[in-house]
Amino acid sequence: MSNPPEGSTITVRRPFDDQFHAEIPRVTADQARAAISRARRIQPRWAELPVARRAAIIARAASLILRDCDRVLDVIQDESGKSRISAFEEVMDSARGLRVFANAAPNVLRSRRHPGAIPVLTKTVEHHRPVGVVSIITPWNYPFTLPTTDAAQALLAGNAVVLKPDSQTPSAALLLAEIFTEAGLPPDLFTVLPGAGSELGPVMVAETDYLMFTGSTATGRQLAKACAERLIGFSGELGGKNPLLVLPDADLDAAAIGTARAAFANTGQLCISIERAYVHRSVYADFVDRLVAATTSMKIGVGHSWEFDIGSLSSAAQLATVEAHVNDAVDKGATVLAGGRHRPDLGPYCYEPTILTGVTSDMEVYAEETFGPVLSLYRVDSVDDAVAAANESRYGLNASIWSRRLGPDVAARLRTGTVNINDGYAPAFGSHAAPMGGMKESGLGRRHGSAGLLKYTESQTVADQRLLPIAPPPGVSNETFAKVLKLGIAVMNRVLP
Ligand code: NAP
Fold this sequence. Notes:
Helix content: 40-55%
Largest sheet: 7 strands, mixed
Number of helices: 17
Bound molecules: NADP nicotinamide-adenine-dinucleotide phosphate
CATH architecture of the largest domain: 3-Layer(aba) Sandwich
Mean pLDDT: 97
Strand content: 15-25%
Strand order of the largest sheet: 12-13-14-11-10-16-17
CATH class of the largest domain: Alpha Beta
Number of strands: 20
Structural class: alpha/beta
Number of domains: 3
């Protein structure tokens, strides 16, 4: 199939065969400004609706995602190149996440009475007001579920949303817009802006009231600075170099299969996937045998069939990074225990799931995020050494611990935003009622849970002072007022919590 001419469109190519897939109109900066103005006009009416009405629309969208499951899977796969089972993670996550958020929102967002400054005389209520128009910028690796779940929380909080998807994967977000419309979302409340980040990012920062960004740490840092200039809210879910610990009391069969899944699902292009494994020396040999067997039995391939565990990498650029990391490691003395080969016979960007040992700190793969199917294995002498090595990173997104008894105690010592015990990444990410995000350079703020909803609001405290102001009444001296109040505070401190 021949390519359409370059111009005011985005050409999406299919990673499965590097052929033309779709041509999407590219939004200009002026069109983005116009969409933001329309969003700003409609948002107050949306905010006036009871939360339960907004939640009903989001819950309906969850049902439509399940109804349209096959179509959603096809779109995700065609744009990203991932396997169908990895694409299904997106359907599962978005359909369940939306329902959980919709159920929780009325309670999380409700106004709450608090003890006032002066008991009885001050009535104090905390409200959560929407920030207004929220910008969301998403990457290509989870092109459906990240737009869906982030937009849902911002909309539930009473905001309008403009969303810029990655230019490699705009169709999945456009499909989401169709689903939201069918679910009953009024026009202009959710607008997808396909286009270049470098052109639309500055408009979104300048014209909206909050930015939720998912992508690289480098871009996130740049956007956070720009938001700080305007003093608008920012949250970023950024990179990771996630560790996994196999402790002496681990179930090794489960740990090996789980480690292969945690490192190679989504072809390793998952911010929370595992790239470093620290294995206690007492179980190292047994674990490695099992892990190599689990890895080499994974089926790689392209297309819509359910038979493949691992799909294609998403682009030539991703393939180049993976090859560069593996070649650099091998050139400097690392050993390939499994994989290590580009597989153009299966698809132009297919790469075997790869396990390395003998990785040292002078190799790129040691500390840099590969964002591909490459796992480095390290033998450690003690649980303390495993914890220290896991924490030795500028990132702090996700960690995995394999142990029958030690999980909760070791988790408390890890500096990562999520920890999965006896699994790799899905249980924490899929616990939508709980917050998810990164420590250190892996991010700022959280998605999911009440934190992920409340960040799209400004809290407003309304205090209604009755009968007397908090000041000396007429005819009472400052000194007398201060004495009475001091006594009152002493009593309050004793009897009130
Ligand atoms: P990226 O280059 O930062 O791109 C991500 C998004 O940002 C794309 O939509 C991109 O738009 C846009 N963008 C790029 N430059 C911009 C700018 N100056 N202003 C505004 N927007 C801009 O990230 P990537 O390398 O493609 O994505 C992979 C990274 O995302 C990995 O590091 C991964 O760990 C991280 N990630 C993190 C999470 C998480 O939850 N923590 C989840 C998924 C991915 P274009 O369309 O123009 O490229």
